[in-house]
Amino acid sequence: MAKTTNRLLFWWVVVAVVTLDFITKQMAVAQLSDRRPVSMLGDWLSLRLVYNPGAAFGINVGTHSRWVFMALALVALVVLGAMVRQTSPKQWFRLLTLGLVCGGAIGNLIDRIRSPRGVVDFIDVWIGTFHWPTFNVADMAVSCGAIALAVVLWSEGKHEQEAVGETTGSAEAST
Fold first, then answer.
1. Residues 156-174 pLDDT 10s
2. Distance between CA atoms of residues 78 and 127, nearest Å
3. pTM
């Protein structure tokens, strides 16, 4: 039962992220298209509609950005799909992180397919004079999921090294 439940966790996370991302982007386009930024928390947080033809942090590769980042997203989804298939159903947190990254990648890929203007971004954060690039729900899922996945993979690598060290140490002790 845990095997099926944990695999479903991955798919529920993907569907939840894609759905929430799509709905919030639709709301942003409907409510913010003809408006100035809407302040939410003073100067710290506002909602402002921006179309990003590039990637995270405004990375842009010129006129072909849409197609380049669409292709990169598809390659990333293939790699992530392979990671999901290789992940044991017992590794629920790894499946959760993979779901976040996949859901976010799909959310932004949908924007790239739907519009030549680019990905809809609308969350604008300022800390003093520092302005964080405008982002969306998909970006949050990718960022949080990728950081958590990196920690998971690092932890797994550390445990594997310890296990190899223990195996090597016990083999040396018996000789």
1. 877 666 666 666 555 555 5
2. 36
3. 0.85
SS (H, E, C) 120-175: EEEEEEEECCEEEEEECHHHHHHHHHHHHHHHHHHHHHHHHHHHHHHHHHHHHHHC
- 153-141-52 Cα angle (round to 5): 120
Catalytic residue, from 21, 111, 121, 124: name it. Answer: 121
Long-range contacts at 78-85 (CB < 8 A, ≥ 24 apart): 80/105, 84/10
Q: Is 124 an annotated catalytic residue?
A: no
Query: Which of 21, 111, 124, 139 does the annotation list as catalytic?
Result: 139
Q: What letter represents residue 105's amino acid?
A: A
Average pLDDT over residues 20-34: 96
Domain boundaries, given as residue ranges, for the chain: 2-174
Q: SS3 of 81, please?
A: helix
CA distance 146 to 17: 14
